[in-house]
Amino acid sequence: MKNQYIPIQKGLQKDVLYKGLKAKYIRYCLYLVLTAIMLGLVISTFIPIIWALLLMAIVIAIVFLVLLFYSRTYGANGFVKKLADSQKPDTIKVSNPFENLLLWKNR
């Protein structure tokens, strides 16, 4: 069998980036921006539209900056790992004391 030369694209293993957001943060940003737009439309029925647009722009800017912070701090998958770590229990409750184990009886 002959040795074949297969060129590898240099950008193949790089993270997906858009305006500084990495990977999954792009999807989070889209969902939260769409939610902010819907919220702005609902709020515009109660307050003047200028105030609703201003509030919507502020919420979108805050969402983008928070996600940009998490993207730069934790990387592409770090935020998901941080959420998973926060759901782990701090302590494990032991229902049987260690003295009752066979290893400790002869000592």
From TrEMBL:
Domain of life of the source: Bacteria
Key word Membrane present: yes
Keywords noted in UniProt: Membrane, Transmembrane, Transmembrane helix
Transmembrane helix in keyword set: yes
InterPro entries: DUF4133
Transmembrane segments: 25-43, 49-70
Pfam families: DUF4133 (PF13571)
Record's protein name: DUF4133 domain-containing protein
Annotated source species: Flagellimonas yonaguniensis
